[in-house]
Amino acid sequence: MPSSKDNGQNLADEKRGWTLSIQETREKMTSTNASSVTKRLQEKLVENLVVPGIAVVALVLVAHVSLARQTSSQAGKAPSAMEPVPALTPFVEEHAHFDFDKNDPEGPVRAALAALGRENAAMIFFQISPDTFDHPGRYDSEILLAAVKKHPGKLAITGGGGSLNAMIMQSVATGDAGPAVQKKFKARAEELLREGVIGFGEMTAEHFDGITPYQAAPPDHPLYLMLADLAAEHDVPIDLHMEAVPQDMALPADLKSPPNAPRLHANIAAFERLLAHNPRAKVIWAHLGSDFTGFRTVELDRRLLQAHPNLYMEIKTDPQAHGKNYPFAPDGKIKPEWLKLFTDFPDRFVIGSDQHYPEPKDADKRWQETIFLFNQLPADVRKRIGTENVAHIYGNSVAPFLRAAKN
User: Fold this and answer.
1) CB burial readout 225-261, b (16+ within 10 A) else e
2) Average pLDDT value for the chain
3) Interval 363-380: pLDDT, tens
4) What is the full DSSP assignment across 185-246?
5) CA angle 388, 128, 402 (to 5 degrees)
6) Average pLDDT for residues 386-403, to the nearest whole number?
7) Quick one: CATH architecture of 84-402?
């Protein structure tokens, strides 16, 4: 794996002993049939857009011309070759990742900047994948931070996935969360904030094996409680990846052990203790719509949103890995119970599609599937979920830029 020296980067954390390296991996995705995606595009564009009449006519005409051309000339090609359908109104991609190439270290930044226009995105936030110290591909925000900071108002980055998260996993493994560990943890969190990250993430409490290893930690672990206090003190959010496990259970049959644990420990009660520990700490529960235990239901989300005003949720709909509680019906429309959840709590959701930049070739785009959902929401709800909620959650680090976005 290339080191920070190989990458030609003068990373500040190299001096502090943080081992940063890059694992050049990409998610392996399989394509779905282009005709089904064409049908979904037609249905969503024609049936679900709620904009002034002239705009509807224009959009539908463009869509029909585009889709007719794609159907005839791109038959058999992956859906990614089709022209993108942008968001009807600006939105913030609050949860994106990057695939780093030592030969082109600013490639993810260029790719994200190029995506802003075709997606109608106001900003894109990069998150750092949650990782462990013994994983050779571990890195943190410093690897891209300098490049991101060249583009304020367009790009931003969170931090801690490759360091704070690793420290929590190490503490769980050793059982040591004593004063020395807490002092080091706090110092690293404050260092990241000084460097310019806008939040802590992506953190995890239950993460199945993928680009990074299987990981689990109690959401009310002492270091998570400390992180909540730091987040509240500095007015930044925590972005948390956590599969929903209401009670101890066996690993779902469609997942393998190893590398995942054969049994999963209950985490919802502990998650609520984290939320209650410091009500001023804003916690974003990642990946709503991408549920792999089957327990992140509308009912659970609704109960937690009602009980915890400091809880927010990211919407992610992955065309190649549908969650077990997927928001779309077979006809491509939002299921009624999901639509009601979004309209009942319009100030508690953001868009976080988990899109990687540069975008993987020959694969459906996560951002596009998520925007299919976004475009079906009522205009006032879209405005809140698109930009206003992000401005509230992240505060002064992004709010001045988002106020300029036209909704």
Assistant:
1) bbbbebbbeeebbbbbbbbbbeeeeebeeebeeeebb
2) 84
3) 778 999 999 999 999 999
4) HHHHHHHHHHHT-SSEEEEEEEE-SSSS--EE--TT-HHHHHHHHHHHHHT--EEEEE---S
5) 20
6) 94
7) Alpha-Beta Barrel (3.20)
Distance CA(113)–CA(124), nearest Å, equals 8
Could you tell me if 288 and 296 are in contact, meaning their C-beta atoms sit under 8 angstroms apart? Answer: yes
Q: Which two tokens stand for residue 339?
A: 């639509």
* pLDDT per position as a tens digit, 119-129: 999 999 999 99
> Model confidence at 7, in pLDDT bands (50, 70, 90)?
very low
Average pLDDT of the residues in 386-391? 97
Q: Which two tokens stand for residue 347?
A: 């100030």
Q: What is the largest CA-CA distance in the chain?
A: 66
Q: How does residue 12 score in pLDDT terms, banded at 50, 70 and 90?
A: very low
For residue 80, give the 3-state DSSP assignment. helix
**What's the DSSP call for residue 3?**
B
Alpha carbons 304 and 306: distance in angstroms, whole number = 5
Helix or strand or coil: residue 47? helix
Q: Distance between CA 300 and CA 268 in Å, rounded?
A: 9
Structure tokens at 251: 């690993």
Cα–Cα dist 143/191, whole Å? 15
